[in-house]
Specification:
The complex is a heterodimer of chains A (565) and B (395).
Chain A: E1 4-5, E2 11-12, H1 44-47, H2 52-61, H3 63-79, H4 95-112, H5 122-152, H6 159-163, E3 167-170, H7 177-190, E4 194-198, E5 201-206, H8 213-230, E6 237-245, E7 249-251, E8 259-270, H9 279-285, E9 291-303, E10 316-325, E11 330-332, E12 335-356, E13 369-373, E14 380-382, E15 388-395, E16 398-400, E17 406-408, E18 417-423, E19 435-440, E20 443-446, E21 453-473, H10 476-495, E22 499-506, E23 509-516, H11 520-533, E24 540-541, H12 548-562
Antiparallel strand pairs in A: 1-2, 3-23, 3-24, 4-5, 5-22, 6-21, 7-8, 8-9, 9-10, 11-12, 12-13, 12-21, 14-15, 15-18, 16-17, 18-19, 19-20, 22-23
Helix pairs in contact in A: 2-5, 3-5, 5-8, 7-11, 8-10
Chain B: H1 3-30, H2 32-35, H3 45-71, H4 79-101, H5 104-121, H6 138-168, H7 176-203, E1 208-213, E2 219-224, E3 230-231, E4 236-238, E5 246-247, H8 254-278, H9 282-286, H10 295-328, H11 337-358, H12 363-386
Parallel strand pairs in B: 3-5
Antiparallel strand pairs in B: 1-2, 1-4
Classes of the chains: A alpha+beta (565), B mainly alpha (395).
The complex binds protoporphyrin IX containing FE.
């Protein structure tokens, strides 16, 4: 590609339309104003278009394409909010039936199109990935040439450059133009402009660093997107749940058996119904109790001797005690434990005694009492008087399965049933079959004929259970860095403006021009101060075909007729 | 007086101060033609308008502070509180941007919108509600307050965009643009109608009760606060009164729909009443007042408002939101509708900035985008909160 040599001697890359150095328009398009976007520099995307790489590059560097990607993501995201996403449908519901049942034909369609999980669908990911690629390419495409152009710009600019600025004017030949320019320089210095001088001409510049704002924010965005993508690597991200009963100590999942948690106490606190502040609200909503706090008072422990299975010899070290609440997780060593759920009054222990059915007995069995831990029941209970009770089978969450046999749904004692086998002192547990009975809450059935003994429940113990989420997210630092850079770039580009003012002495005429990337109003105000203090005139806004002063006059004249109707 | 009453009184005071500001700004633009003799602008009413706006903001903040004292938490936790605060934030945004451009027309457009938002807010239940555990977080407060501020600044972009459109659109011929603009004005009138009807029927303690069968097939009761034009699913009126003509399916909350119908009817009456009065589109009737508006300035103003509001909104609506979500819900992002709509708003304004910067969408196109952006914010506030209820749903 051939380079373009400007009259001023600067050699520009192919595709440049304003000379990087003096600003002379190089392509003679009939535009009345110079296109100041990216300083009129040549970008790679405009230069090459031969190979596939070039084509891809050009595609993604186009802002038009970038905007389309943004708009497509926007529209697609809307679709996903029409009905709830799968993770928000009620627990236990199947997506395949739920959507149709709840939302009819549209719901079915929603499900069939996969919109119920669309934010993790391949096409949504593809859109996000294109956004990332577009961001990288379009930023690279512009930032390098822009940087070079701003660095090599000369103070003395070509006439064509000046006269084609939005704010421009020139004076007639005047006396001592140097004086006026000098005065203007002082004014601009007071306004914190940086002044560059060359042959009695001035370039006053302010806030150039704002020009890098968009690129900084794009970099932040890219880092953020990379962080978000990294969560697909399991190493980076742990999401586990633990249920911990009061008094119980469990291993914290996801920590490789290193950390343990003991639930010392779980409490639920309600708002005081008498609270004067909320009286109206309670009245309006019918006085349902409102929860104030869920809290697990927990002790975090760390295993000391790290080898081997956990057994009696395992030693623990208490690391800390913490009250875990909603909005106040326990954080340690990169992990966080969140209060997410709870269950009050879960069955934890049954206490039984043994009785003879007909009270003809001379024996006193009231000494026989035993307690069954419903989570971790012991299987054999032996008593001094020779009696022995064994657990034959245990169903923590009893139901009758498809084969019409007793079974358990899971290990949570929501509906516990125990089959006990009772041995009298005369019997041999190894060879004889004892009396079998099925025992549960409000249930007591003999299973092998009439029983002489009856196992009677005399006490029930309940327990609160807390549910905690264990989370470790190693992508967070990356996301934070990305987010911070993004915000810095955003602020840098939005709250500062790049302004430039050119004052040139051309054979006694003063040429005035100004450019800014936003905030023309502010730039015009700066010009006003120059005008006030010097003989330099206010530049005209060449895009403003609407002349304010005339129009106000017009309003004055015309209004009497037009608004007094 | 209790702190709650004090706060309500300050809000009422603020409302009248916003009204005063509106009137001053109105005077400042119409009064110009007989005061401007020396060619210099010696019109004080713009300044008075600004001062009233500042006083109104002070009163609003006193409302905010006293309500905070009364409830013990930042008053941004239900629809009434949040919407009111959004209105206040729009006024604050105006106070920040006005000194840059000294544009009295902006005041004339912004102050009534602020009043409208605050009046709309007061239609929601105003009692102080206890906070459930998930909402007890200072990050939540920071998040919500920053979002409201960002949206308030973006709303200034809307006011300026609307000003621009009414200034430049040619109302003498019927066109799509005119129809859309009239539709926007009609929506504003419907909101006014909703507020007036709400106040009217509220003052009369109007209530109509129905027995009906709800979407789960269970008998339930429903209360209408405006005379029923439509009845709920298999509804039977309790007590006397005429029966509505139309019944609705069970999945529709018919009392809310009834209110919407009333508001639209009210809006239509207001709209066509005004059209009869002016004998031209409402926008066309306002246009002559805006002759002195420099479209370029207003265009830049709307852009500046959005350039200033965008980072604030992003900080509050995405970044602080993620921090809070990480702490409260264990993950910083969960694709819940409220989050997604914040993202949509963010993407929309990002697209706006790029269109403007790189594709030269200035003037009219840009102004339409400002209007659409505000519609998105309102959709977010009203529709997403009340209809697509997610984790964040208030009230
Ligand atoms: C959601 C994603 C994006 C966000 C949040 C974003 C944000 C921004 C912001 C805030 C600006 C500054 C605008 C202003 O000052 O008015 C900007 C400028 C820019 N953006 Fe993006 N952007 C995104 C995606 C993209 C993409 C995909 C492209 C490429 C096709 C792109 C290309 C540009 C360009 C060329 C500029 C102008 C740079 C300059 O003035 O030197 N942006 N962006």
């Amino acid at each position: 590609m051939e380079k373009v040599k400007c009259d001023c001697g600067h050699v520009n890359p192919y595709g440049t339309y304003l000379c990087e150095s003096c600003g002379k328009p190089l392509l003679d398009d009939n535009q009345s104003l110079a296109d100041m976007r990216y300083e009129g520099v040549a970008r790679r995307s405009q230069t090459y278009s031969k190979s596939v790489v070039d084509k891809v590059w050009n595609f993604f560097s186009s802002v038009k394409v970038g905007i389309w990607i943004i708009v497509l993501i926007l529209l697609a995201s809307m679709l996903g909010t029409i009905f709830p996403q799968e993770m928000y449908i009620p627990a236990g519901e199947r997506a395949s039936t739920y959507y149709e049942q709840e939302y009819g034909v549209l719901g079915k369609l929603y499900y069939q199109l996969g919109l119920h999980t669309m934010y993790s669908s391949w096409w949504y990911m593809l859109l996000i990935a294109s956004l990332g690629i577009s961001l990288v390419i379009c930023s690279l495409d512009r930032v390098v040439p822009l940087h070079r152009a701003l660095k090599t710009q000369r103070v003395t600019r070509h006439k064509g450059f000046l006269s084609r600025q939005k704010l421009f004017s020139k004076t007639e030949k005047m006396e001592e133009p140097e004086k006026s320019i000098e005065k203007a320089e002082k004014v601009l210095k007071e306004k914190h402009y940086r002044i560059f001088k060359e042959d009695g001409n001035i370039l006053a510049e302010k806030g150039r660093f704002a020009r890098w704002g968009p690129y900084v924010n794009h970099v932040g965005l890219i880092i953020f997107l990379i962080g978000a993508m990294l969560r697909f690597f399991p190493e980076m991200y742990i999401d586990e749940h633990i249920w911990v009963r009061e008094g119980e100590q469990v291993v914290i999942r996801g920590t490789d058996g290193e950390y343990f948690l003991r639930n010392d106490e779980f409490i639920v606190e309600l708002y005081d119904e008498e609270d004067e502040r909320f009286r109206e609200s309670f009245e309006r909503t019918g006085g349902n109790p409102v929860v104030k706090t869920f809290q697990t008072s927990a002790t975090l422990l760390k295993r000391i001797n790290n080898e081997g299975p956990i057994g009696l010899g395992t030693e623990f070290e208490e690391i800390m005690q913490y009250d875990i609440r909603v909005n106040d997780p326990l954080t340690f060593d990169g992990y966080s434990l969140y209060q997410v759920d709870y269950k009050l009054n879960e069955l934890s222990e049954f206490t039984f005694t043994l009785q003879r059915n007909e009270d003809s007995s001379e024996e006193d069995l009231s000494d026989i009492q035993f307690t069954v831990d419903l989570f971790n029941p012991e299987l054999v209970y032996e008593f001094e008087n020779g009696y022995r009770v064994e657990i034959f089978q245990y169903f923590p969450n009893f139901y009758i399965n498809d084969q019409k046999e007793p079974d358990t749904l899971n290990r949570i004692p929501d509906n516990p049933r125990i089959i006990f086998e009772v041995f009298t002192p005369e019997m041999n547990p190894d060879t004889d079959r004892g009396e079998l009975s099925l025992v549960g809450v409000q249930v007591n059935e003999a299973l092998n004929g009439d029983n002489n003994y009856r196992i009677r429940m005399i006490d029930v113990d309940m327990n609160h259970v807390t549910a905690l989420t264990v989370r470790r997210d190693r992508t967070l630092p990356i996301l934070i860095v990305g987010g911070v850079i993004f915000m810095i770039g955003l602020v840098q580009g939005s709250y500062w403006y790049h302004r430039r003012i050119w004052l040139q002495n051309r054979d006694g005429e003063i040429w005035v021009a100004g450019h800014t990337n936003k905030n023309w109003h502010g730039l015009k105000k700066d010009f006003e101060t120059i005008t006030k203090n010097t003989a330099i005139p206010m530049p005209l806004d060449q895009t403003d075909d609407w002349n304010l002063i005339e129009e106000v006059e017009g309003v004055k004249g015309k209004d009497d007729s037009s608004t007094s109707k | 007086m209790t702190a709650v009453q004090v706060s309500s009184n300050f809000l009422l005071l603020a409302f009248f101060l916003y009204l005063a500001a509106t009137i001053f700004f109105a005077v400042s633009i119409t009064g110009k033609r007989f005061k401007n003799k020396k060619g210099e602008e010696k019109n004080k009413s713009g300044l008075l308008g600004y001062i009233s706006a500042i006083l109104a903001i002070v009163a609003s903040l006193l409302y905010f502070i006293f309500r905070w004292i009364a409830s013990g938490h930042a008053p941004v936790s239900n629809m009434f509180e949040y919407t009111t605060f959004l209105g206040i934030c729009m006024a604050i945004a105006f106070a920040i941007i006005y000194p840059m451009y000294r544009n009295n027309f902006l005041g004339l457009f912004t102050m009534p919108i602020v009043m409208l938002i605050i009046a709309y807010a007061s239609m929601f239940p105003r009692d102080i509600q206890p906070l459930i555990p998930a909402l007890q977080s200072y990050w939540l407060k920071i998040h919500v307050i920053t979002v409201a501020l960002g949206q308030g600044i973006l709303a200034i972009g809307f006011a300026a965009g609307l000003l621009y459109l009414i200034r430049v659109i040619d109302f003498s011929k019927a066109s799509k643009k005119v129809r859309w603009l009239e539709f926007i004005l009609f929506s504003i009138l419907s909101t006014i109608a909703y507020i007036l009807l709400g106040i009217g029927f509220g003052a009369a303690n109007y209530e109509a009760e129905f027995n009906y069968i709800n979407e789960k097939g269970i008998e339930a009761q429903m209360v209408y606060t405006m005379p029923p034009l439509i009845s709920p699913h298999e509804g039977e009126r309790i007590g006397e009164g005429f029966d509505p003509f139309l019944a609705t399916p069970a999945i529709i909350r018919s009392n809310d729909l009834n209110t919407v119908i009333w508001s639209i009817l009210g809006g239509l009456i207001l709209y066509f009443g005004l059209r009869l009065l002016f004998r031209k589109p409402i926008g066309g009737a306002i246009q002559p007042l805006l002759k002195a508006v420099n479209p370029q300035t207003v265009d830049e103003l709307s852009y500046r408002a959005i350039a200033i509001g965008f980072p604030v909104f992003t900080l509050g609506g995405l970044i602080f939101a993620m921090i809070w979500a990480q702490i409260a819900w264990t993950r910083f992002w969960g694709w819940d509708p409220k989050e997604v709509w914040a993202l949509i708003t963010f993407l929309f304004y990002a697209a706006y900035l790029h269109l403007r910067l790189s594709r030269g969408w200035h003037g009219e196109k840009s102004a339409w985008l400002c209007v659409i952006g505000f519609a998105l914010i309102m959709f977010n506030l009203i529709f997403v909160n009340l209809v697509i209820a997610g984790l964040h749903s208030y009230a």
